[in-house]
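Need residues for this backbone.
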């Protein structure tokens, strides 16, 4: 329970950090806005041409009697749109981080400098970092998809599928969301995907406390845009905790000279 609260605390600390650093917050909004526009355009296209696509994909239903063909194709269109929304939620963070790699790298570095006075660097060229980020995001998405298929199947179990399974789904999504966000800081420290997953599994409560509330909030894409900069900042603070990096204590002020100004003697 302590780690759950600590994870949520890092999420709140990250939001406070970017609110106190307006420039970093403003720059961090741009990737999310770009991703939101792209996703919105894709969903509009799906709404406009989804019926046509389903009709094209089901020629065997052309000869069905009314109303079965319409009901069948309407159901498939609804399923297609629901799957597209689910995919949008699962991939929004990965795509935003990929588009905004330079912005979020800079934001994460500023958090490190503010907290520890030093920002670790991977030493890799930008193209290499982008490639590693894209590759790891795809691997994470595959892992998340495996869970999604399992939970989708369990969703047909009476009662459990409508109560317990959705809750588990949010925790699973929160865990992988935390991994994606913490990767911004951990990748600079040359911590690969396998090590990142091991770190988070050793502190599951921390990952759930950070990522699960964020997963719920990210169901509203416009909200996700405004939370992303703070989420990256909070994940950087959490990464420092996972690696045992502590913020140095400020140096104590010198005690006053007992006889006044020492320079006078």
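Answer:
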């Amino acid at each position: 329970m302590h780690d759950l609260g600590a994870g949520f605390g890092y999420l709140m600390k990250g939001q406070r950090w970017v609110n106190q650093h307006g420039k970093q917050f403003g720059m961090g909004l741009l990737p999310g806005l770009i991703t939101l526009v792209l996703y919105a355009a894709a969903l509009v296209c799906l709404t406009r041409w989804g019926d046509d696509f389903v009709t094209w994909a089901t020629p065997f239903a052309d000869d069905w009697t009314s109303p079965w063909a319409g009901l069948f194709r309407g159901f498939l269109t609804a399923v297609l749109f629901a799957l597209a929304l689910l995919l949008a939620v699962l991939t929004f963070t990965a795509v935003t981080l990929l588009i905004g790699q330079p912005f979020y790298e800079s934001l994460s570095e500023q958090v490190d400098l503010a907290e520890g006075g030093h920002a670790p660097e991977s030493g890799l060229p930008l193209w290499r970092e982008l490639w590693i980020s894209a590759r790891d995001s795809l691997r994470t998405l595959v892992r998340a998809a495996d869970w999604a298929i399992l939970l989708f199947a369990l969703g047909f179990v009476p009662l459990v599928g409508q109560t317990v399974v959705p809750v588990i789904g949010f925790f699973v999504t929160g865990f992988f969301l935390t991994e994606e966000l913490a990767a911004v800081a951990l990748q600079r420290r040359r911590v690969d995907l396998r090590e990142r997953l091991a770190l988070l599994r050793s502190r599951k409560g921390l990952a759930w406390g950070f990522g699960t509330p964020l997963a719920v909030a990210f169901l509203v894409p416009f909200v996700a845009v405004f939370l992303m900069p703070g989420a990256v900042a909070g994940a950087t603070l959490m990464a420092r905790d996972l690696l045992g990096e502590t913020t140095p204590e400020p140096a104590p002020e010198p005690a006053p000279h007992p006889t006044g100004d020492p320079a006078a003697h």
